[in-house]
Amino acid sequence: MVDAGGGENITQLPQELPQMMAAAADGLGSIAIDTTQLNMSVTDPTAWATAMNNLGMVPVGLPGQQLVSDSICVPGFDPSLNMMTGITPINPMIPGLGLVPPPPPTEVAVVKEIIHCKSCTLFPQNPNLPPPSTRERPPGCKTVFVGGLPENATEEIIQEVFEQCGDITAIRKSKKNFCHIRFAEEFMVDKAIYLSGYRMRLGSSTDKKDSGRLHVDFAQARDDFYEWECKQRMRAREERHRRKLEEDRLRPPSPPA
């Protein structure tokens, strides 16, 4: 209150001061958080704690107390550092985040077709079955083992089927239903392996002796290994000769006599 002389009546201030401070505190609390600017209810402790966790802060209320228990809060919060510890960093190379291209699609299974020859027909195996297994390829392999031949298959029929893979240098047929075929080049062996798993039927006969399932695999022949060794020795000689020429070229000239 102000008296007639213009001075304040300070005798009533101590009695009104608590009410004024309480009103100011209520007004400050009401404007501290504008609920119209939030997407969730401030009165919902779980939503408020989740929002503060996402911002990297400890979930606390307006007065400063913790809203939820430590089990719900982000574990590993260090109050002294005012930060969270123990959080596994996100790998930026994870596919799907757009930072790296997605992994390439798996290889499409090769669909084999029926092969028609003059004396026989080759039918592919069921694509749902696993592919035929093969042994480890020997160095310089040019020979394949062919098993599962029909009992009535002759050397001429075998020649007719496998000459589509390349030039054949030798065919060694056994009295049983298998043989060995040697090609002129190594890449022709891969074409012969492709025929593994095919069912071979001679003509249009349904006799059991005129049909069989082919099994083509790598064969270790002494001739192939000998030729491979000869090539390796020849390449070694060429490499030594090349190094000698290089050393002679880089050697400084001899001083004059």
Could you give the order of the helices and strands? HHEEEEEHEEHEEEH
User: What is the count of β-strands?
Assistant: 10
CATH fold title of the domain at 115-221: Alpha-Beta Plaits
The average pLDDT is: 75
**Rg:** 44 Å
Task: Trace the largest sheet across and list its strands.
Answer: 3-4-8-9
- Percent strand: 5-15%
Could you give the distance between the termini?
Answer: 124 Å
Described by the principal axes of the CA atoms, the overall outline is flat
Largest sheet: 4 strands, antiparallel
CATH architecture of the domain at 115-221: 2-Layer Sandwich
Low-confidence stretches: 1-14, 28-38, 64-74, 95-99
Number of helices: 5
Structural class: alpha+beta
Helix content: 25-40%
Can I get a quick summary?
By secondary structure, the chain is of the alpha+beta class. The chain has five helices and ten strands, in the order ααβββββαββαβββα.
Structure notes:
Keywords: Biological rhythms, Cell membrane, Coiled coil, Copper, Electron transport, Membrane, NAD, Oxidoreductase, RNA-binding, Secreted, Transport. With 257 residues, this protein is of the alpha+beta class. The chain has a domain at 115-221: Alpha-Beta Plaits (2-Layer Sandwich). The protein has helices at residues 13-32, 45-54, 155-162, 187-193, 222-250; strands at 77-78, 83-84, 115-116, 120-123, 143-147, 168-173, 178-183, 199-202, 211-213, 215-218. Strands 3-4-8-9 form a four-stranded antiparallel beta sheet, with no helix packed on it. A hairpin with a 4-residue loop joins strand 1 and strand 2 (83-84).
